[in-house]
Amino acid sequence: MLTTEPALRAFTQNVFLAMGCSAEHAALAADVLLLADLRGIDSHGVARLTGYVRLWEKQRINATPNIQIVHETPTTATIDGDSGLGLVVAPFAMKVAIEKAEKYGSGWIAIRNSNHFGIAGYHALMAVEKDMIGFAMTNASPLVAPTFSNERLLGTNPMCYAFPAGKHPAVVVDMATSAAANGKLEIAQRLGKQVPEGWIQDKNGDFTTDPHALKSGGSLLPLGSDREHGSHKGFGLSATVDILSAVLSGANYGPWVPPFVAFLEPPTDPVGKGIGHFLGAMRVDGFRPVDEFKHHLDNWIDRFKNASTINPNQKVIIPGEPELEAHADRIKNGIPIVDAVADDLNAVAKKLGVNSL
Amino acid sequence: MLTTEPALRAFTQNVFLAMGCSAEHAALAADVLLLADLRGIDSHGVARLTGYVRLWEKQRINATPNIQIVHETPTTATIDGDSGLGLVVAPFAMKVAIEKAEKYGSGWIAIRNSNHFGIAGYHALMAVEKDMIGFAMTNASPLVAPTFSNERLLGTNPMCYAFPAGKHPAVVVDMATSAAANGKLEIAQRLGKQVPEGWIQDKNGDFTTDPHALKSGGSLLPLGSDREHGSHKGFGLSATVDILSAVLSGANYGPWVPPFVAFLEPPTDPVGKGIGHFLGAMRVDGFRPVDEFKHHLDNWIDRFKNASTINPNQKVIIPGEPELEAHADRIKNGIPIVDAVADDLNAVAKKLGVNSL
Asked: Which residues of B touch A271 (CB under 8 A)?
C-alpha cells in the first residue's frame, strides 16, 4: 500500500499512545520512526513498530520510563533508560549531550538499559541542527561473527557521524559495521533472491548466497567480508561500538545483548542492563568559526561530487544524499508500505483498539 | 639486517638531532617510530625516517616548530603544528586532550599544519595509560578513490580507538579505512607478487591484482572494496576522518593533502595548512568506575577469545593482540630491517654525519 506522512505519523503515534506512552513520548517515538520511512530506510521505520509492541507485551519495554542520569562529569554522563523505548531514551540523552556541548564544547553520553533506537542518523542530526557535529552508535542483537569465528557475537552495530554544511545538506555517514545491513537480507528473503558472496556465512563458516542461512546457524559477516579484504577492520569497528555502547555504560554486550524479536528470550545470565548506545555532540565553533567550517565542507562536497567517475551515469554519492532524495520523493509521492508489513501493523492496531492504517 | 631496539632508537634519535630537532623532540619522534617497528608495523617505523629527512631538506618539515593552541573551549581546541613533525605535534596535542579530560571528563583536539604522525596507536595509547579511552585519526596523501570514482581523493585515513583493560592488554583498534593499507601494497611490489582482487583498481576503475597499478593512474579502494560489499561505508569512514582532521582544523583535505613523498610537490592551491589530525581522550570514570569497566572489558575479551572458530588452529584475534606479540618477539629477538631500507637509512645518515646503523 501507499500511505502519506501525516497518516503514517498519526497511526504510529496512536499505537504508542495505546501502549501507554505519554503524548510527548508517543510523538517523539513516532517522529524517529517516520524519519526512517521518509529517508527510505524502511527496515528501521514503522516496519519495526509491531516489534516494539510485542516487546512491550512481554514487559521488556517500559512505556513510562523514568530516564535518569546515573553518573556524570561536566562533559560525560551515563544514562539509565529504565527499559524505555530507545526511540525516546536516545533523544533524551542527545539533549543532555547538546547541553554539555553548549557549556563546555562537547558532551558524551553512554546509555544502558535501553532498547532499539531507530536510525542512528536521527540522533546525530539533533546536534547538526545546533551547528554541532553529531555522533551516534548502538549495539544490537548478535547476528555478526568476528573474523575467524562462526559464532554470532555482535550486532550490526551502526556508527553515525553527522556534519553541518552551508549551502549543501549535512554530510551524514550512517552505516552498519557489517558487510550488509540485516534489512537488505530481509528484502532478499522476502523476494526469494540470492545475496552476493561476502555478506553471510553458513554455520561452518563458508560463504553462502542463501539469505536464509542465518536461520540455520549462519551469521552476517563484518564489513570487509573476509580477512584478506579487511573483515578484521569491520570486526574492530563493531567491537568499538559494543565497548563504547555497553561496556562503558553498563549495558549487555556481545552475545548477551537481548534479542529484538520478542519470541526469543534474553540470555538468563545478563552482564548488564538492556542494550546500550553511545552519543556525542561537539560544537563546531569549539574548533573554528562555524561559517569557515561550512564554507570548507561545502568545498569538500563540491570537489567530491565533481570527481572523475568510472561510469558517466553514476556520480560519486555524498554520504546522506540518497536519504535526502528519498525524503523529498516520499513527502511528495507518499510512503510505500509492503503489504505484509501493513497487515501486521493493522492486526496489532486492532488488538490495541487503534484505527487501522 | 637484524638490529636491536636500543641501537635503532639511538640511530633514529641521532638523525632527528642532526635535522636540528631539540633533544626532547628527537627522543619523542624516535619513540613514536620505534613503537611502530616494535609492534611489527614496519611501514610506519624507521622505514619512513628518510622520508621525513627529505621533506625537511625541502623545508616542508620544520625541525623547531612553535606548536600553538589557536582556538579553544574547556574541552576542545585547535592546534597549529607550525609544519613540525607529526611525530612531535600529535603527542603535544594528545597531552592537551588528556589535561582537558582530567578537568572536564573529555578533551578533543583538531590539528592543522602538521605532517605524518606515525602510527595512530601511539597517540591513543597515551590516553590509555591514564585510564582514558583514546581516539586518534589523521588524513594522508590521496591514494584512495571514493566509490564510483577513479580519482585518488582520500588518504588511507586511519582511525584508532584504544580501551584500557584489566588483566588483559588494552584493546587497540588501529586501522586504515582502505581495504588494504599502503604498506601491504609496498610489500607486494617489493616481492613482485600479485595482490588480491578488491584492494586496488586501475585507472579505468577495473579491479586489478597488479600492485604497480597505482603508478599508472590506479587507486586504492575503500574498505568494502566495491559498492555491493560496502565500499561506500569505507568511503564514509574515510570522509569522516578527512572532515574531522582537516575541515575542522583548517588543514588541507581530499586531493589538496600534500604528498608524503618529497619528490612530489604539494598542490599550488592549498585549502588549508599541512595535513590534519583529530585526537581525543575520555576518562573512563566519567562514565563508570574504572575497575567495573576493566572487569567487563576483560570479560568481553575472554568471551571473544573463546569464541567458536571455523578453523581450530585459528582463534579469534582481539584488536591489538598481534602487535603485542610482535612487540615481545622483537624486544627479545631483535628488529628485522629490509636491506633496501637499511641502505637508504645509512646513505642519509652519512650525509647528515650520523653513525651508520
From this structure: 296, 299
